[in-house]
Specification:
There is one protein chain. This protein has a domain at 2-246 and 385-458. The chain contains 19 helices and 2 strands. The protein has helices spanning 2-13, 18-45, 54-68, 76-101, 104-131, 133-136, 159-175, 179-199, 202-219, 222-242, 264-268, 281-287, 289-296, 327-338, 351-354, 370-399, 401-407, 410-424, 439-458, and strands at 137-138, 147-148. It has a two-stranded antiparallel sheet. The radius of gyration is 22 Å and the shape is globular. 50% of the residues are buried.
Length: 459
């Protein structure tokens, strides 16, 4: 259960609960080191032969270019720290996946750890809501109803993990050895789906649906497949409908008219960049977008992109299921910024430092697109490596389609996790962020798919 502990501590490090935040911030790095130690021990003790399929090579190359980018990074200290932690996570994920591909029982426990961690965090969110609902809910605005953030820092924090855990839970439920086990796993899946619906996280919803359906197709046949397919679509339809139930507030501030609210834990942590240490606005724009927001007051700038003219009343922004919430403008800005350093980028881990949010309805320190975020950090070379990895995973899935369907192996769960993570990477910046609770699960699932199919081909 080391993996579950790592994921819970990572979630605690970005929790709205002050005590959990203080424990999780240092604890997650200790847990990550423990995860690496456990993964090495598993491979050594069980004498698992190490393999280097193209998927693992592509992941290693991505971690490698992250470390090498320290040489041209605008913030080499941050780049080295974040690149090394990312490499440690990928190494642990590769070793765990290698050991799991050789042991079906271990593989099931690994997937179960992801599911258990997600379920416990969802229950923790309910506890926070019952104890202090104002802390667990993000207040409504004129354009957006109240959103559940539960145990997480914001409404999108934990639903990202729930999205990659849902296909795992579906697989565990479909392949459980008893009806009691099936009911337990599927009930947990409904809990996660309900939590996503209450959070209003559209990226998590969009990522989880096709992945869960894929798991159903690979795991079941005949009437069971039809029933599971229909039930999954119906459950997601109800969940999507639930995101529209919350009523926007008529008295809350207009979205975009002021800086976003900061949680109690965020307010207690000082910004590492001191304003007096930055000599000029030009240097601010190149080094720290958050400092730029604070010093230049970009959130309240009347020239902010998309903001109505001062002579006109502020326009209420209404959040819809298929609206971009300002992401389209941010993506355009991120793309333009990436083209200033198109080949190698600004350095791994610098997205939240060099990207500047000066868009009226967009509230984030990141581009909120993992593909553009990679391009911004490690250029076209890094993005190409990640796209190559996804293409190899798709190829593995197509090559191993029949064997995966026939044995209902753990590769099915890996395929669901990988698909959910790849789709969710479109509206979220996370696949390279070790501090994100969904990152470890995504990489373990992705590498597990590649290594499992490789093993079956060899057999």
């Amino acid at each position: 259960m080391t993996l579950a502990a790592v994921m819970i501590l990572i979630a605690s490090g970005s929790s709205v609960v002050g005590f959990a935040h203080r424990v999780g911030q240092p604890g997650r790095w200790v847990a990550l080191a423990a995860l690496l130690a456990v993964s090495i021990a598993l491979v050594v003790v069980r004498r698992v032969p190490l393999r280097m399929p193209p998927v693992v090579i592509a992941a290693a190359a991505l971690a490698g270019i992250g470390i090498v980018s320290t040489g041209w990074s605008v913030l080499p200290g941050i780049t080295l720290q974040r690149a090394v932690s990312f490499a440690v996570l990928l190494l642990a994920a590769a070793l765990l996946s290698t050991a799991a591909a050789a042991d079906a029982t271990l593989a099931r426990r690994l997937i179960g750890a992801i599911a258990v961690a997600a379920g416990l965090l969802a229950l923790a969110g309910i506890v926070v809501y019952l104890a202090r609902s104002s802390l667990a809910m993000q207040s409504a605005t004129p354009g957006t109803g109240g959103r559940l953030r539960g145990f997480g820092e914001n409404p999108n924090t934990l639903p990202m993990l729930y999205a990659v855990a849902l296909p795992s839970l579906a697989w565990l439920g479909f392949t459980a050895f008893s009806w009691r086990g099936r009911l337990l796993w599927l009930a947990t899946a409904l809990l996660l789906l309900g939590s996503i619906s209450a959070s209003g996280s559209r990226g998590a919803m969009i990522g989880a649906l096709p992945a869960t359906l894929l798991v159903a197709v690979l795991s079941l046949r005949g009437r069971l497949l039809l029933v599971a397919f229909a039930a999954t679509v119906a459950a997601f339809a109800i969940a999507v409908g639930g995101t529209t139930v919350a009523v926007p507030s008529s008295s809350a501030p207009v979205a975009g008219s002021q800086a976003p609210a900061v949680s109690l834990t965020q307010a207690a942590v000082p910004d590492p960049v001191v304003a007096t240490a930055i000599p000029s606005p030009a240097a601010i724009l190149l080094t720290d977008g958050h400092a730029a927001d604070r010093i230049l007051d970009l959130e309240n700038d009347p020239n902010e992109i998309g903001r109505p003219r001062i002579s006109r009343p502020l326009v209420e922004f209404h959040r819809t299921m298929f609206g971009s919430s300002g992401r389209a403008q941010a993506w355009d800005g991120g793309l333009r910024q990436s083209l200033q350093r198109p080949l190698l980028g600004y350095g791994f881990g610098t997205e939240d430092q060099v990207f500047i949010d000066h868009y009226y309805v967009f509230e984030s320190g990141r581009i909120e697109n993992s593909y553009l975020g990679l391009w911004l950090q490690v250029g076209a070379v890094g993005l190409a490596l990640f796209l190559l990895l996804l293409a190899l995973l798709a190829l593995h899935l197509l090559r191993g389609w029949r064997s995966l369907r026939s044995v209902r192996g753990v590769g099915v769960a890996g395929a669901g996790i990988a698909l959910s993570g790849a789709v969710m990477a479109l509206p979220q910046s996370y696949v390279y962020s070790v501090g994100n609770v969904a990152t470890a699960a995504f990489w373990i699932g992705a590498l597990l798919l590649g290594l499992t199919v490789l093993r079956k081909d060899a057999a």
